[in-house]
Amino acid sequence: MSIAHVTGRRLSVPGQEEKASDIQTPEEGADKYIVARAMSAALANVRERCARYLTAGRMMDDDRLEDVTGDYVLTLHMPTRWNYGATTQLTSLMHGHVTDYCVYSIFEKTNPDEAAQYLARATNELKRIKTVLELRTAPVRRPADKYY
Q: Does the pLDDT of residue 131 top 60, yes or no?
């Protein structure tokens, strides 16, 4: 919503006040349901990518954005050799996908040129999630004299 607000302020020029206002306040009126549906769809995309490792987390979302409280938590059970150093990158990609997909949905009708950029970023982040999930640490090699 903050990205939409800043973009709306930037577009606030004579003759485009209504368009800027629509972009600037996605949390009001009917637009908040667009944001809620976009967030629900983006989170579903992330859950789908992580389904193999998903052990707990909210199982479904709906359009009631005003009723969603607390943090969104996905608990993943990663293999022993998964590289835990990639945790920050994984959470950053997940958050980025949800944010960019929501901004795309907000801008889709009111600002289609910028919407395409956000959709491309969201799609790229979603693809990269799978790559990070597949990162492994190198296997531990035992010295040859320890085999027997």
A: yes
For residue 36, give the 3-state DSSP assignment.
helix
Q: Are 103 and 5 in contact (CB under 8 A)?
A: no
Kindly list the distances between the CA atom of residue 73 and the CA atoms of 38, 77, 95, 115, in Å, as whole numbers in the listed order.
18, 13, 11, 27
Q: Quick one: tokens of 139?
A: 């296997």
Q: Please, is 74 exposed, middle or buried when counting C-beta atoms within 10 Å of its C-beta (0-12, 13-18, 19+)?
A: middle
Helices marked H in the chain: 2-10, 17-24, 31-50, 87-110, 112-133
CB-based contact 4:107 (threshold 8 Å): yes
Give the pTM. 0.74
Distance CA 58, CA 73 (A): 7
In angstroms, the CA 14 to CA 137 distance is 57
The whole-number pLDDT of residue 17 equals 58
Q: Which residue has the tokens 């600002």?
A: 111
